[in-house]
Amino acid sequence: MAPETLPQNIHLLRIPSYAPELNPCEQIWQYIKQRYKNQRFESMEDLKKWLHGTVNKMSAETIKSITANHHYIDAFIATS
What we know:
By secondary structure, the chain is mostly helical. It has helices spanning 24-36, 44-57, 60-66, 70-79.
């Protein structure tokens, strides 16, 4: 969504180009990578199935605990 089309109550913050601690998606990927580092897949389809199953098994509490780095985000917002 282009910044000019955002609702007035939403403010975009540009994060540094490499700041995984500020990006919850990066934290989720780290969690997933830890689980597949010793896996072997015969095909891309097997990898996709495994990945889909792994993501679907993640509970809301797991996701919340992985992405609970809000203190980094709060500090970033305070200095922006």
